[in-house]
Design a protein that fits this description.
32% helix; alpha/beta; two-stranded antiparallel ribbon; 6 helices; five-stranded parallel β-sheet; 197 residues; 7 strands
Amino acid sequence: MLHKNNTKDASLNVLVTGGAGFIGSALVRHLINHSCHHVINLDKLTYAANLKSVEAVSDHPRYSFEQVDICDAAELKRVFNQYQPDWVFHLAAESHVDRSIESPAAFIQTNIVGTFTLLEQARAYLAEHPQKQTTFRLVHVSTDEVYGDLAHPDDLNTPTSLTDGNNNTSSPLTDGNNTPSPLMGEGWGEGGKPAKF
């Protein structure tokens, strides 16, 4: 669906929030290198962002960068109107447990308020562009530090706090079933360390 050899979705405008983060930058590079889509990288550039991670594609004609906080509704509206995305991959999140203990307000602001603001702007955009309503997609992608660990089905939806690994603070906003995504899994992160995604 997102690859060069698929002519069905010839060229999409794909908005990636958190596109300068670890997972987001990999998605941005993949889309530029393996599709014909225009990629709009939207990132606030916090401690977790690194524009060097997208440096190899930053001069590509199908790449655009917007330094925007997902909590800023007016800026999100401008980006939606300017680029008219067909798909949104929402990866912007605060996800370091140690930081959540030191500064929980930032986690609430980005992971909950930011996700809500993005969803509201997407909803408003679709109301203004009804022709996109059947093809528009918004995919929320994050780590277990945002969604929480995959638990036994009997234990789902029982977060114990906003700062432990079992919370799923923003997933209820984007998951109609209010459960962790079945697409979550384990892989290998930076330096060969195990990572959940």
